[in-house]
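Quick one - first record:
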Amino acid sequence: MSYSPLLISLIESLRCMPGIGVKSAQRIAFHLLERDRDGAKNLSASLMSAANDIGHCRKCRMFSEQEFCNICSASGRDGKSICVVESPADVMALEDATGYRGLYFILMGHLSPIDGVGPGELGMNILDQRLQEDRITEVIIATNSTVEGDATAHYVAEMAAEYQISASRIAHGIPLGGELEYSDSGTLSHAFYGRRTIE
């Protein structure tokens, strides 16, 4: 017996999320329809609002409803230090684990020519402008310990060197091939404070 068109559409829509296959999408759809229709309506409204109203901070590219995100607009942050990360999840991980009080720049990915992701797709022009204009004295590169993360770190370090800005990269603690958002806070804190200068 086949499902109704609306149910099929719901299951297929849920599959757009990472790690959600057919069975998981089916289980979520059935749960929402059987036990939590109010939750389903709230989820639907939240997704619609987020999709329509959340954009990117003009300065760091964090998700934000405002022109500048809460971190960039906070008065107590150190404006001379900028930490370059691959994703908003990395910002949250560092905020929770390190006590870092500088600013961020979020690439929304990493260099990957094979996937058509170059400097333009990562907002490197925005980062370059910040390095020129914002009196940055330190760039901390916290890209993932992958081949693509290493290539991206090297690219960012070269950009910093053009403006005689010190560049360091988080070093030990994060395993090769590991990603920041999946690291525990102790490991992440150790890696962050054990960063080394890129030569």
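second record:
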Amino acid sequence: MKLWQKGNPINEKVDAFTVGKDREYDLVLAPYDCEASMAHAAMLGKVGLLTNEEAEKLIEELKAIKQTTLDGTFTIPDSFEDMHSRIEFLLTEKLGALGKKIHTARSRNDQVLVALQLYIKEEVQQLKKATFALFEILMDLAEKNKNVLMPGYTHMQVAMPSSFGLWFSAYAESLIDDVVLLNAAHTLADQNPLGSAAGYGTSFAIDREATTDRLGFSTLKYNVVAAQMGRGKIEKTTTQAIGQLGATLSKLAMDVCLYMGQDFDFIRFPESLTTGSSIMPHKKNPDIFELIRGKCNLLQGLPHQLTLLTSNLPSGYHREMQLAKGLLIDAFHEMKSCLEMLAYSLAQVEVNQDLLHHSKYDYLFSVDTLNEWVKNGMPFREAYQKMGQEITAGNFKPEKKVNHTHLGSIGNVGFEEIRSKMKTLLD
């Protein structure tokens, strides 16, 4: 059954090509379509396009259908094009002609928009919770290991002293930047498009503020054309936020892969979190982190795919916009799994407590030594040249102690300030 069908037979090849995987992804969006339909029915009753009794009957049946979408018994057989046609069929099957009234004053265009935006709002909140859970683990590890030194690198060469407190909390604070973008995606999705119909409104005297309030949107997208123009833009902005979070997780996963290696030996994980080799019994491979790195790198490419998909489209609806649906839903799924596995794994990390005794890390302390000379009156450039000469001559003897006190440094990372910054964004 097609909502647009006028009695002509359907070409099966065209149907299979145009529907694609829409039924599969609509199973994810169906609860939100039911919720939006409830708000729409209530509004139709409020403005007199339905009686109050009709509106209540529709709402009660939509609640029942929504429950099936949540418990996994809702299906979209191949005879239905999408969740919209399936839900309307179930309403009509149960309520007769009343079920056919639900589509008054709306289109599938604003139906899918509002379902997507409700989905994005909820999924972004779930991502923020998962991001905060990882943030908390990183901050706890940072505070626990704040006095454990490790080498810092530039150009992949030993550079200056760092600490595990600095390293763990650096990624925690980077996650705050990612929450900023998640908040932006949420704000963009938090504008009710319902009532824009096919993109040009309707001649029915509907109440868009009523559906906005009932669905919990903070505002509505006032201009009906602008509402439809949000399709593609909202998905792209959301995947940009996901991709930015992916960039942070990918870099962290790369560090973990390096630092687990025998040449570094900074951190270790229980054997249950690693995999082995079919021929090398000594191997403990960081497969979890390599997959996180790969998945998150792919997620960073999604905004580019969506840009190519939607570039140069004129205003109004175009069928290829449905292709954004799967990219978005899969992106949320992948990102949540990456966050979950990182949090699970990092909670079990073991830190090497005595790294810097090795002579290959001696030069880490050259800058601190020449800084002491500067504190005692030597011009910095002269101190720099003197240190270079001592290193070349093999005379440098490191004093493996650090005394960094400024805010954000090894001895004063700013844990409280970092936690406060995250709390402000989450609030």
